[in-house]
Specification:
The chain is of the alpha/beta class. It has two domains: about 50 residues, no CATH class; about 280 residues, Aldolase class I (TIM Barrel). The relative contact order is 0.16.
Length: about 350
């Protein structure tokens, strides 16, 4: 490759495996040419991917109805604390930015009402998850966590572990001291290299996130990391890269354990199946009970709304077709997997935000 005149970054691919798909610009070239690497395109850039699965009868979508998933049990209730975030990622699953206030801040009183309903109606919910946006921008988050934990639920917070989290360190330490490992924080670190993490999350976002992760580890919080598979690398390469990063920073996280490092698939509603069909679900080897919407719902509060609403999925807060009602009881009804994300993320991608 070097003799042929290809840039060094491509030749090094054969040694380190970092760029297995040479259709993509390597990091140095992207910087020089000013052409950004698009994370979603990396995951679907090959011709075979663009054609798939149109010609595969196992995943035919045009002549099959969407799969329908019953709520088996409300194992996890997600609280969307608000859509505002301190970052504006290139391809945010939630479209969160410092200006997107489509989802208002949820209040501690509103969350308490949902927890009351869980207790009153015997839902048996084990985990209360907090997502955003960046949850730590919501000033009520410590109170919401304390309420959920005091009622016997486990709590999971999805965070970028940057400056907003630092403001709540004292409250977090108090909660950890009282409830220990029942409080878990999952830190979003999209790639194990600064270059690719910051292509998604923006400049100067890698080191602050690592610093926040290191603080959580030093203070003995239960924690995990969430990454993404937009680099085009095989999952084994990605996990090996995170393993090196964790070792370099003294983080006792097993990058080969999906519970410690969750790697989410990419989604592009313009590519691939438009919905998850019954045939697709059957041929994937999964049943409806294996999917996130069989065991979870999310509470949101739309801007200017008087009260929260319950939606089927953490990934579809803006889709009116996935709004199930104003109460958890109303949200017991089945969910039709009539969206591209249902196919790419859940059925074919095998992902679960609560995993």
């Amino acid at each position: 490759m070097a003799r042929a005149g290809l840039p060094d970054a491509y030749a090094r691919t054969l040694v380190d495996g970092f760029w297995p798909n040479c259709d993509s610009l390597a990091v140095p070239e992207a910087a020089v040419q000013g052409k950004k690497i698009e994370p979603v395109r990396l995951a679907f850039a090959r011709d075979v991917d663009l054609r798939w699965p149109v010609d595969d009868s196992r995943f035919q979508v045009d002549d099959d109805a969407p799969a329908r998933v019953e709520l088996a049990a409300l194992e996890t209730l997600w609280i969307n604390t608000g859509s505002l975030c301190n970052l504006a990622c290139a391809a945010c699953f939630m479209e969160s930015t410092p200006r997107n206030d489509s989802l208002a801040y949820m209040s501690a009183a509103e969350v308490a009402g949902l927890l009351d309903e869980i207790a009153r109606d015997g839902f048996g919910t084990r985990v209360i998850g907090f997502t955003g946006g960046e949850p730590f921008l919501n000033r009520d988050l410590p109170a919401m966590l304390a309420d959920a934990l005091a009622r016997g639920h486990d709590a999971l917070v999805l965070t970028n572990a940057m400056k907003p989290m630092r403001r709540h360190r004292a409250a977090l330490l108090k909660l950890r001291g009282k409830y220990g490992a029942r409080l878990t924080l999952r830190v979003s670190l999209d790639h194990y290299t600064r270059e690719l993490h910051e292509l998604e999350r923006g400049p100067d976002s890698f080191v602050p996130t690592l610093d926040g992760l290191a603080w959580l580890a030093r203070e003995k919080f239960a924690l995990s990391v969430a990454g993404r598979l937009y680099s085009g690398e095989p999952e084994t390469i990605v996990r090996a890269g995170y393993a090196r990063l964790f070792a370099e920073h003294g983080l006792a996280l097993d990058a080969h354990d999906p519970g410690a490092l969750t790697l989410f698939p990419e989604m592009d509603a313009a590519v691939g199946p438009r919905r998850a069909t019954r045939a697709m679900l059957e041929n994937s080897g999964k049943s409806g009970r294996d999917l996130m919407c069989a065991g979870a719902r999310m509470a949101i509060k739309r801007k200017d709304a008087r009260a929260p609403a319950i939606v089927a999925c953490t990934l579809l807060p803006y889709e009116k077709d996935f709004e199930l009602g104003a109460t958890l009881a109303e949200a017991r009804r089945p969910v039709e997997l009539n969206h591209a994300h249902c196919a790419a993320f859940c059925v074919l991608g095998g992902a679960d935000c609560a995993a």
